[in-house]
Amino acid sequence: MARRRNPFDIFSDFEEMFEEMLREFEKMGPGEHISGPFFYGFSINQRPGEEPEIREFGNIRPERGRIEIGERKPLVDVFDTDKTVQIVAEMPGIEKEDVELNVEGRELEIKASRGDRKYHEFVELPADVDIDTARASYKNGVLDITLNKVEKNKGRKRINVE
Description:
This protein is mainly beta.
C-alpha cells in the first residue's frame, strides 16, 4: 500500500534520503568501512512570498540511488543588496591560505583543502558583479565575500550618429 504524501510535510524528502543512506551502510560487508568523519545537513530559507529554499551541505550526498562521500559542501548564504552581493560560507578547520575563489560570469567557485578537510561548492550569483572590486576575508571558520554589482544603464540617453 502506497503512503499518501502530506503536501505540507517539507521533511518527507529528507526522510527518504536518510533511509537510503542507512540502507547503503547496511549493504557494506564486514571488512568495509568509511574512513573519516561524515555528515549531512540542510538549511531552509524562506523569503516572504516565495517558496522555501532547501540547501544541502556536508560530505555525504545521495546520488542516483547510491551514497557518495567526498568533498564537503559548506553551508553557504547569499545576500543580495542594492549595490552588493555578499556570500557567507562556513568552513571550519582550514586557514585563509587554503581558500581558493574563482568567479566566472554569474558563478562563484569556492575551494579549500587542509589535511582531511576538503570543501568545494559552486554558488550561483543573483546578479552580474565587478570582479575587480571583490573582497574576501576568513575568520573563525567563516568565509565572507563581498562583490559589487555592475551598475546597469540608468535613464535614457540620445546617441548621435556620425
